[in-house]
TrEMBL record:
This is Glucose-methanol-choline oxidoreductase C-terminal domain-containing protein. Gene3D superfamilies: FAD/NAD(P)-binding domain (3.50.50.60). Belongs to the GMC oxidoreductase family. Keywords: FAD, Flavoprotein, Oxidoreductase. GO terms for molecular function: oxidoreductase activity, acting on CH-OH group of donors. Transmembrane segments: none annotated. Residues 49-108 form the Glucose-methanol-choline oxidoreductase C-terminal domain.
Length: 120
């Protein structure tokens, strides 16, 4: 049986000119993940798992975000400095959510669509 842990990580990393992403975890991020691993381990042992079979996986980042935060790169209407260029994805988040972002993305997209319709 596997368990996955999600944390609200600190804002680090970069989007490179070639389009690749480099994400690093801070010391605090790693501490949070290690703490979560110990909690998961206790849960698995309580459920009857053999402690010798419990392995710790690799650190991964699942939902990169915050590369064009509202108030810095996009304005309150999600528009960039380039008139008519709007952004509606996780890059506009001001900070990581620490949970799946789909509902927040949908909310921002609905908000943007209403704004664009009002401008038409």
């Amino acid at each position: 049986i596997g368990m996955m842990t999600k944390i609200r990580d600190e804002i680090t990393g970069e989007v490179r000119n070639d389009g690749t992403i480099r994400k690093t975890l801070t010391k605090r991020d790693k501490e949070k993940l290690d703490e979560a691993h110990e909690i998961n381990k206790k849960i698995l042992i309580a459920a009857g798992a053999n402690p010798k079979t419990i392995l710790k996986g690799i650190y991964e980042s699942g939902h990169p975000c915050c590369t064009a935060p509202i108030g810095k790169i996009v304005d309150e209407n999600q528009e960039t400095e380039i008139k008519g260029l709007f952004v509606s994805d996780t890059s506009i988040f001001p900070s990581p959510l620490g949970m799946p972002p789909i509902l927040t993305i949908v909310a921002f997209s609905k908000r943007l669509s209403r704004y664009l319709l009002s401008c038409a």
